Amino acid sequence: MLTIQKIIPHGHGLAAVLLKRAATVELDWDVRQKSRFDATDSTGRHVGVFLSRGTVVRGGDVLVAEDGTLIVVKAAPQPVLEVRPCAEHGSPFDLVRAAYHLGNRHVPLALAPDRLTLEPDHVLADMLRQMHLIVTETQAPFEPEGGAYSAGSHNHHGHDHPPTTAPTPTRGKAIGVAVVAAPAPHVHGPGCGHGHHHH
């Protein structure tokens, strides 16, 4: 058995030719969020992974065995729910609202400009449909968003931003407040096809 205690996020610093020759291992999200697990790579070798507690393995990361063997991690397709706004009667704001409510429930969530992806949950699926969103069951790799300050988020932003400070309120002076208009109400027509009810 190959013993692995090291991980290189996204294989940074490794030559492309090494990554191309390396074996691979397909892991779903349930396994990749564990710091200790067993798996079998693409060559049939059994590997035992023992990483630091709290480590999250992402697709594209490279596991390094004690003998120097490299194994590239692939995010395995798994059952997921894809959530999209109704193209006919919704708006992109519907996704923002859904992400807010899911975030309040601490639901692992993959973000894209046109969709949200989460693990199957019929209660959440019903809630999202009631919010006038299109929810589809499918199979796809699942890479939920990491916390902004989490060690496992693999944040490779590449540059620094200057610190910003909020203006200090001064007695007797008004403070500007940005006001965001509420979204237009969701109106249904005969072709909406959501299959939900209004009360």
Automatic annotation (TrEMBL):
The keyword Ribonucleoprotein does not apply. The keyword Ribonucleoprotein does not apply. One of its GO terms (cellular component) is cytoplasm. InterPro entries: UreE, UreE_C_dom, UreE_N, UreE_N_sf. It comes from the Bacteria. One of its GO terms (molecular function) is nickel cation binding. Residues 143-171 are annotated as: Disordered. Residues 7-71 form the UreE urease accessory N-terminal domain. Belongs to the UreE family. This is Urease accessory protein UreE.
